[in-house]
Design a protein that fits this description.
- With about 150 residues, the protein is an all-beta fold.
- Helix content is about 5%, strand content about 50%.
- The protein has a seven-stranded antiparallel sheet with strand order 1-10-9-8-7-6-5, with no helix packed on it. It has a three-stranded antiparallel sheet with strand order 2-3-4, with no helix packed on it.
- The chain is globular, with a radius of gyration of 15 Å.
- It starts with a strand and ends with a strand.
Length: about 150
Amino acid sequence: METRPAKSRNIFPTAFELEIDLRGNLLTMTTTALEQRYVHHRQLKTTKTLLIGGAAVGSPEEMTRRMGYSAGWSDSVVSSAAWKPDGVTLVVTSLLNLETSQGSFPATSTSEYKLSTDLMTLTVTERRATRQSPEPAVVFVYHRVL
């Protein structure tokens, strides 16, 4: 799936690609962030495998770089996945320690994945416990590439 920047909100890299492999309750997500404005780090690719409804697992994470911190690829990031009661919205919760100039502090990010009824558009709404606003911090709108 590829992002639709015009429909997304607050996404930093030029584009994101998302590959999802769901086999029963075993979920593997590979995110590739593409940024053309910089010479280094033009492509940041991360893969995480989660058991939906299972325990949180550690994984390299692109989230801390999207949040503007240098703690990307921290092994302090753990994620878990679960279905909402509606049965169609997947929630991925990530816990991490942010390293800032003021020190280290824990943060939580919750991403909700919802597929359109025609199965062509995936909307990912990301909220962060560090933000006081009820508005999502980031909204990714992906279009399925066939």
